[in-house]
Structures are given as structure tokens and as C-alpha cells.
Amino acid sequence: MKTSLPYLRDSYKDGSALKERHFTTEDALYFYKSFRPKSAVPKEMIQNVNSVKQIDKLFKLKGIQFGNWVTTEDKYNYLALTYLCLKDINKVLKFKDENMGLNGLLAFSFGARGVSSALAHYESNHQVINITRYWRTDKINRIRIALGQAPIRDIPKETRLLKTGGAGSMAHEYGHFLDYSFGRYRDQHKESNWLSGVYRTTKRTVEYSKNHVLRNKMNKVINTALNDKKGNPSAYYKRIAPKNEGQSEYWTRRLEVFARIFEQYISYKLDKMNINNRFLSKTVYKSSVYLKPNEFKSIIKPMDDLIKEMRKHV
Asked: What are the E-state strand segments in 34-140?
């Protein structure tokens, strides 16, 4: 079994075209298999990730930005992972012509626009999904030493890409993108640009006329999670609600509830296809803030209806 792979030379500074690959197609497919262990990596990926322009054109993106410390090798890896993640999300969404950027609305940023303490975040004002760069071995070892653990001499790149930085956050942040973009451009309302409701509100529901189909279907999704059949706070809401006055209501914000539901929904649908994309989605928060399996069952039909309606507007 292979234990290591040759990497790209960190020598090109143009920020876009990756002019030379130092591993073979077979090596590359083997490397990316670790991110998607249940199913084969499509061979055509290798021909589609040589430049940012190729990815932009394929998925109708606005662009991809890299930070100063992202090497040429890292750029190639992040392009390849973006390709795999958007391909997998669209296996569920089925947006026409793989229009994942909704005609140039969405951009990605890797290691360039981070926010303190956030592994990933979505900037609605610029329509950018920001993914934090993976950690260096020395940073991991500083944390291990602080925790009283022995340092590790060498941690493989694929391990750090999978387990540190913004790995596993893309589905969550893409859920934010859909929430904002469809509310801002497809089903507009004076009260909010977000389908999920007023920005950063908690349990309060905005009522819409029947003409606001997308917004009503979004309300159905979120309200099904937050309310029981009698309209009272659900067990899930009680679990994530602040226990004491003054505590953060972050977990109950409607846009965050939807992003976590979307994350679970994508994972659930892909699992049915025997696909487990570890860079796309993993439990990055404590498990109690996600729906339990019996709670999630009630969300599937409303989510199916919402995605089907979104599909009509792409």
C-alpha cells in the first residue's frame, strides 16, 4: 500500500494556472480517495482542476481567492476539493447545468479572509464562502504540548487537510449561500434578504403571503424543527435554547438552524448514494445542536419540497 505521494513544486506564483503536476493521474485519484472513501473519485476531475477559470466556468462561480500562505500545491488541492464538493452537492440539488454559483454570485476563498475563531464563514455582503487553511504540524504540536500530549514528528498533508482548518464546513456555508441568495434575488421581501427570516433572529417567524413560495417552504423546514405538532417548542429547540439569561442565542438563530439542517440533509442524501465526502460535511459542532435521527425524519419531506422549488429558479 502507498504511504506517501509526491507533491507539486511550490514554485509558481501566478495564482491561477497550475502548470505542472508531479503526481500521476493514479496517484492523484488515490490521494483524493481519502476525502471521499466510500466511492471512486471521477477521473475527469483531473482534467477539470488545472485553473481557477476552469472551475469558475464549470460551476458558474464568481471566482476563487487564495491567501498569501497557500502554496501552489495547496491551490491544486483546494481546487480539486471544491470540484468534488460542488459535484457532490449537486447530486442532491440537481441544479441545471451545474449552476452552483447561481450565475456568478458565489466566490470561494481559501486561507485568505478568515475570521478569528471561525473555521469557515459566509460573507453575504460579498457572497464569499471562506474556508480556513489547514494547520501546520508545528501549530498542531503547540496545541498538543499545551494539552500535555506528546508532539508528532510528521503529520501527513491529507490528514491535516481532513481534520484541521475549515474541512467539513462547506455544506454548512453553502446552505447559508442558498438561504441568502434565494431570499435576496429570487423571492424578495422588504423584511429580510434571507429566506430564513430577519438576519440573526431566533425563533420568531415572519409570516408571508402565499405568493412567497420559497419563503413559506423555508419556514416549513425551520418551524418543523423548532416546534412540535401542537406548535409548542420542540425538544430540539429546548435542547439548543439558552439555559440562562445572558447566554448566547446563536444556536437558535433561524439562519444557523437552516444551515445545520442543510448540512445534515446533504450528508443524509449522499449517504443513500454511498458517498461520504469528508471535506464537504462533518460534525464540526457538538452533536447536541444537530437534529437527532428521529427528529431529522420529519425534516426530509419539507427539505425535499424546498430544494425542488429552488430548482425551478436556477
From this structure: 63-66, 107-110, 120-123, 128-131
Smallest Cα–Cα separation from 6: which of 27, 26, 20, 25?
27
How is the chain split into domains, by residue range? 25-167, 175-312
pLDDT tens per residue across span 6-15:
333 333 344 3
Residue 267 CA to chain centroid, in angstroms?
A: 11
CA distances from 237 to 65, 216, 241, 248, 289 (A): 37, 20, 6, 14, 9
Query: Does the pLDDT at position 251 exceed 90?
Result: yes
The count of C-alpha atoms lying within 13 angstroms of the C-alpha of 13, restricted to the half-sphere facing its C-beta, is: 1
Contact 22, 7 (CB under 8 A): yes
What pLDDT, in 10s, does the model give residues 88-98? 999 999 999 99
SS3 content of the chain, % helix, strand, coil (to 5): 45, 5, 45
Task: Please give the angle made by the CA atoms of 186, 295 and 304, to the nearest 5 degrees.
Answer: 30
Angle made by CA atoms 136, 49, 130, in degrees to the nearest 5: 50
Residue tagged 441568495 (cell numbers): 181
Instruction: Write the CB contacts of 7 (distance below 8 Å, at least 6 apart in sequence).
Output: 22, 23, 73, 157
Query: Quick one: pLDDT at residue 140?
Result: 76
**How far is C-alpha 1 from the geometric centre of its chain's CA atoms?**
31
